[in-house]
From TrEMBL, chain A:
Record's keyword terms, sorted: Signal
Classification via InterPro entries: Bact_solute-bd_prot1 (IPR050490), SBP (IPR006059)
Protein name: Extracellular solute-binding protein
Signal peptide per UniProt: 1-22
Species this chain originates from: Paenibacillus glycinis
Classification via SUPFAM superfamilies: Periplasmic binding protein-like II
Superkingdom of the source species: Bacteria
TrEMBL record, chain B:
Entry's transmembrane regions: 21-45, 80-102, 114-134, 164-191, 212-234, 272-291
Database matches in PROSITE patterns: ABC_TM1 (PS50928)
The protein's name in its UniProt record: ABC transporter permease subunit
Keyword Cell division assigned: no
UniProt organism field: Paenibacillus glycinis
Annotated ranges, domain ABC transmembrane type-1: 76-290
Family: Belongs to the binding-protein-dependent transport system permease family.
Membrane topology qualifier: Multi-pass membrane protein
Automatic annotation (TrEMBL), chain C:
Listed transmembrane segments: 21-40, 80-104, 116-138, 150-171, 192-214, 249-269
InterPro entries: MetI-like (IPR000515), MetI-like_sf (IPR035906)
UniProt family annotation: Belongs to the binding-protein-dependent transport system permease family.
Database matches in PROSITE patterns: ABC_TM1 (PS50928)
Pfam families named in the record: BPD_transp_1
The UniProt record lists the keyword Transmembrane: yes
Protein name: ABC transporter permease subunit
Occurrences of domain ABC transmembrane type-1 (ranges): 81-271
Membrane topology per record: Multi-pass membrane protein
Keyword terms of this UniProt record: Cell membrane, Membrane, Transmembrane, Transmembrane helix, Transport
Subcellular location field: Cell membrane
Cited SUPFAM superfamilies: MetI-like
């Protein structure tokens, strides 16, 4: 559905976002006790002591970092006594920078990170709980599901920016050729067996060479864990831990998923070289018609595919070599063993940190203001639209009404179906358990999975190795036995 | 270095010790502040459960855990294998290239040197992307096309534990010799031509000159390249990290990667420090052996 | 008089020998520069994400859009190049001066604690930087309060153990007779260093200069850690901003890598005079 820009709505939205900001600055009377005051002089009458809030931000969307100056200016206009100092960083490197700063005891006030990183910083004692500083208006602005991801124990450690579904993506023409009713799949999902048959039909051979695979997932290096994770969520294991905090991947279901992973390759529906297909490669395979379905699929891929289609039409040699026109179709991940479909989601957001010194209440309130400014209203709306992801704040939705997005309505609907059964957040998992699971994943699960994908290890052997390591880590009673 | 020479030098240059200290003063201050201090901190941290807001001393726990960690030992083994496969070969290649460049015309020397040096100039991350493409597992991959010409079937280069290590080693062979070639060439040009003149008078052959003049004269250089090469190779992890993520099945997990993960991924900084110090001890032993074999200075 | 047999000019023997050598070197060179070739080729593509890149040996279309993209991307692009130049230049100069001094002292001057100090330097070099990085960061940022300054970028690299070691190894082969005779003529150690050691070591100093410059130029992580505004970043830090989400702006990244490699080339060719001149110890001696 093409959302046409409407002048009235845009005026309304602008007005609304300004009111929200004004409201939030008046909600917290902030005075005194500022830390290091920023260099920039404040225009207008200051309503409180000067304070500088630092934020370490990656290129969240393609245009995100271009807007830094405007963001800082807008924030300062709404809060004349506050300066928002934004440090840009690239995705891969910002974790390292943040981690060094955290270890040195001097992190920025706000960093944009994945919510799965929260528990490790909580363990270091370097996150700032904003439970008391965030107003109820702020909290109420967010959809509850993504908000849960910013919690750990009973603390709230920031505001979410978006909740992105990790799905699959199909080529519309090939899906239709293979006789797959993708619209029905988008609505009702599919089982592993249905999926297996479907991707078998997608395979095209020339002689004994496969010229098109049914399904290709990026599994090279550490990306392999994404593949396993989105599958097991649909096999009755929405989290590495069960609700009573036992390690779930020792379940028999896990073994079945491993067997199925192998089966799809052995069927010839997926390439036998899958273990070294990386994200770039599989997207190239999608655009050049070498695969019918690819994963993991993010919402922005529709945009990438559309752009390449335009280049093919322009016929100026700038389209991907050998590419064909492809309509990107959002598809759900199949479910296993009669278990309900559970969508893997990535919730990223603005996480709040503290330094060695206990932050004052005023500084805390100022940081919350800045984090909320970034994670709601106009800033959030622009960013999420850039990314093709759903809005998760009321103010963001309102601000977005005036913005045009060119998306396939079927895909929009499919994504909201996916998000309706998103894997719930698990703030109740103790940080020590979470840390152990991450280590187990890095040192046993991923390495063994890589070997399984390469055909060097049997599913049973991988399962046994993981089970043994899990029992070593969590004890006989700490793991699921079925 | 050479104890027998020490007394001789002392006799001759008795009052020079002061100059010695002056000459190394700046180096020592920089070293003390920016290397020794962080190393000392790391040493203290290795006995701690490190937390930015207050660490606790836990004695030797980090070390005992390190010694019990099977993956740590395995990664040390992997790193040793990688080092043995890469460093000597790269050194030999650089030596051969440096010797071969020598008789050419100046402009050719310059061009070749520039060409060989190029990979060292370009950003490692950008190049790793290219290498990923060279090792593309499908038929379309460069390497697979190449071996296809010889009738060898598709290989899953980085994805299979039998070829992943080879792929990384191969990459090192072709991209880590620029610096060594230049250093070797500088050393070759530094050899006093009077040695060759004398050898020519004796009617020495090319190989004899190589054996009796070049190789002994290049010993200090070889020692330098070997020691720094081994140190670098023991600490390497970027390529493995970018290309294979340490897999498959930990076949390419280097100890540097493990230390990195402990320090930053799991925030077990104390353990990372302990592992680093154990690793440093390893490298020191290897370096010591190298000094034993190559350390004797050339006598003129 | 050299390592190789002297053929008369244009003799068949020389042609054959040099021809064989050139063929061998060319083959090796081809394998070496292939990745670079590909880097440059792909920098000429359209600025698209990695997944949409062309896996092809020859460009289907030549466009300089990526280079434009690079300079348009940020108003700081040129500033980044400038910062890198300042940092790498200072680090290079101070290393050449101080490492050669220390190298000379460690190789030719006898003083108490010499081998102990040198061993200490070497051992410290063996400790992986992953664990020294946090204490160093605490020192520079929390103790000296230098974040976002040129000092923070330059100071830790003022003189490296690698260069001291390199200088020491090269200077160890300078004949001691030269130093002795200079002593006889009444030269102080400083004069010996300036008048004899430095001229004799210009080959290795040129090598050291270019290696240090390159290393500093290519350093990413430290400048990334200690800078926090765009105007203080170096080119390597700035370049990394091209990497976006799960994909990469491929062509611009390659264009950036090409651009950042260019100054190295200029430096290389301007310094190569020193690389190629053999140093004749005999001339100094006589």
């Amino acid at each position: 559905m093409k959302t046409k820009s409407r002048v009235l709505a845009s005026v309304l939205a602008l007005g609304l976002s300004v009111t929200t900001l004004a409201a939030c600055s008046s909600n917290n009377g902030d005075n005194g006790g500022a830390s290091n005051a920023g260099g920039n002089a404040n225009a207008g009458g200051a309503s409180g002591a000067k304070d500088t809030i630092t934020a370490l931000l990656p290129p969240v969307s393609p245009t995100y970092q271009d807007n830094f100056e405007q963001m800082a200016k807008d924030f300062n206009a709404a809060n004349p006594n506050l300066t928002l100092k934004i440090e840009p960083a690239s995705w891969e490197d910002m974790t390292q920078k943040l981690d060094t700063q955290v270890n040195a005891g001097s992190p920025p006030d706000i960093a944009f990170i994945g919510s799965d990183g929260i528990s490790k910083y909580v363990q270091q004692g370097m996150l700032m709980d904003i439970k008391d500083a965030a107003t109820s208006d702020m909290i109420a602005d967010y959809d509850p599901a993504p908000m849960e991801y910013m919690k750990n124990g009973d603390g709230i450690y920031g505001f979410p920016a978006y909740m992105e579904a990790h799905a699959l993506g199909g080529n519309k023409e090939f899906l239709e050729k293979a006789g797959i009713d993708y619209k029905s799949v988008q609505k009702n999902g599919w089982t592993y067996d249905e999926f297996r048959e479907a991707i078998k039909k997608g395979v095209v051979k020339e002689g004994d060479k496969t010229s098109r695979y049914g399904f290709v997932f990026a599994t090279a290096g550490v990306a392999s864990k994404d593949y396993l994770n989105i599958l097991v969520k649909n096999a009755g294991m929405p989290n590495a831990f069960t609700t009573d905090n036992k390690y779930a991947y020792t379940s028999k279901n896990f073994l079945e998923v491993l067997k199925d992973i192998r089966q799809l390759i052995d069927d010839g529906s997926m390439p036998k070289e899958l273990s070294s297909v990386d994200a770039g490669k599989r997207w190239n395979m999608f655009l050049t018609g070498q695969t019918m379905i690819t994963g993991k699929g993010l919402a922005t891929f529709e945009n990438s595919a559309n752009k390449n289609n335009e280049k093919i039409d322009a016929n100026d040699g700038s389209a991907v070599k050998g590419s064909i026109k492809a309509d990107y179709i959002v598809l759900p991940v199949p479910s296993f063993l009669g278990q309900p479909a559970v969508t893997t989601v990535a919730v990223d957001g603005y996480v709040t940190f503290r330094g060695k010194k206990e932050p004052t209440a005023e500084h805390k309130a100022n940081v919350v203001k800045a984090a909320y400014f970034l994670a709601s209203g106009k800033v959030a709306a622009t960013t999420n639209n850039d990314l093709f992801v759903a809005h998760i704040t009321k103010t963001g939705r309102t601000a977005a009404e005036s913005m045009t997005v060119n998306r396939n309505p079927d895909n929009v609907a499919a994504v909201s179906t996916l998000l309706s059964h998103a894997a719930p957040a698990r703030p109740d998992i103790p940080v020590e358990l979470g840390a152990k699971a991450i280590k187990l994943e890095d040192e046993v699960m991923i390495p063994k999975l890589q070997a399984l994908l390469a055909g060097e290890l049997k599913p049973e052997d991988m399962y046994d190795a993981l089970k043994k390591a899990a029992i070593d880590a969590f004890g006989e009673d700490g793991v699921v036995k079925d | 270095m050479n104890p027998s020479k020490k007394s001789f030098i002392k006799r001759k240059f008795g009052g020079d010790a002061g100059w010695g200290y002056i000459f190394i003063a700046v180096a020592l201050v920089v070293f003390a502040l920016f290397t020794a201090y962080p190393v000392a901190s790391a040493f203290i941290i290795s006995f701690q459960d490190y937390k930015p807001l207050g660490s606790t001393f836990i004695g030797l726990d980090n070390y005992t855990e390190t010694f019990k960690d099977a993956l740590f030992w395995r990664s040390i083994r992997t790193t040793i294998v990688y080092t043995i496969l890469t460093v000597p070969v790269a050194l030999l290649l650089s030596f051969a290239v440096a010797i071969l460049i020598l008789p050419l015309k100046k402009w050719m020397q310059t061009t070749f040197k520039a060409v060989y040096y190029l990979p060292a100039v370009a950003s490692g991350v950008a190049l790793s992307v290219v290498w990923l493409w060279i090792f593309d597992p499908m038929e379309s991959g460069i390497f697979n096309k190449l071996i296809g010409l010889f009738g060898i079937g598709n290989q899953n280069w980085l994805g299979s534990s039998s070829t992943a290590m080879f792929s990384l080693v191969f990459m090192a062979w072709l991209s880590s010799h620029g610096t060594s070639i230049i250093i070797y060439l500088a050393a070759l040009l530094g050899i006093d031509t009077s040695y060759y003149e004398a050898a020519d008078l004796d009617g020495a052959s090319f190989l004899q000159k190589l054996r009796y003049i070049v190789i002994p004269c290049l010993k200090p250089t070889t020692l330098f390249l070997l020691v720094t090469g081994v140190i670098g190779s023991f600490q390497v992890f970027q390529n493995a990290y970018l290309m294979t993520g340490g897999g498959p099945d930990n076949a390419t997990t280097m100890v540097g990667l493990l230390i990195f993960n402990n320090a930053f991924k799991y925030f077990e900084f104390g353990k990372a420090a302990a592992q680093s110090l154990v690793l440093a001890a390893f490298i020191a032993i290897v370096a010591l052996l190298q000094f034993k074999f190559f350390g004797k200075e050339v006598e003129y | 008089m050299s390592l190789y047999k002297n053929y008369p000019d244009r003799s068949k023997g020389k042609l054959f020998r040099n021809g064989t050598i050139v063929v061998l070197l060319l083959l090796f060179a081809l394998a070496t520069i292939f990745p670079i070739y590909f880097m440059i080729i792909s920098s000429l593509g359209d600025p698209v994400e990695a997944g949409a890149m062309n896996y092809s040996l020859f460009p289907s279309k030549i466009s300089f859009a990526s280079y434009k993209f690079f300079f348009d991307y940020s108003e700081y692009s040129l500033r980044w190049l400038f910062n890198s130049l300042i940092v790498a230049g200072s680090v290079m100069l101070s290393n050449v001066v101080f490492a050669s001094m220390a190298g000379y002292a460690f190789s030719k001057i006898d003083f108490k604690g010499r081998s102990f100090l040198f061993t200490l330097l070497l051992v410290a070099m063996m400790i992986p930087y992953q664990v020294t990085q946090v204490p160093l960061y605490i020192l520079i940022v929390n103790v000296f309060d230098l974040q976002n300054t040129y000092s923070a970028l330059i100071v830790p690299g003022l003189v490296t153990v690698y260069n001291i070691f390199l200088a020491k190894q090269f200077m160890s082969s300078i004949p001691k007779e030269i130093i002795e005779s200079a002593k006889m003529e009444g030269c102080s150690q400083f004069q010996i260093y300036v008048r004899i050691i430095l001229p004799l070591s210009k080959t290795v100093l040129a090598v050291m200069a270019i290696l240090t410059f390159m290393d500093s130029w290519n350093t990413f992580f430290w400048p990334f850690l200690v800078t926090n505004t765009m105007d203080m970043q170096t080119i390597q830090v700035g370049l990394k901003n091209f990497r976006f989400a799960n994909t990469t702006y491929f062509a611009p990244m390659m264009a950036g890598a090409t651009i950042s490699a260019l100054p190295m080339f200029v430096l290389f060719f301007s310094l190569q005079r020193y690389f190629l001149e053999g140093v004749t110890v005999g001339a100094v001696k006589g």
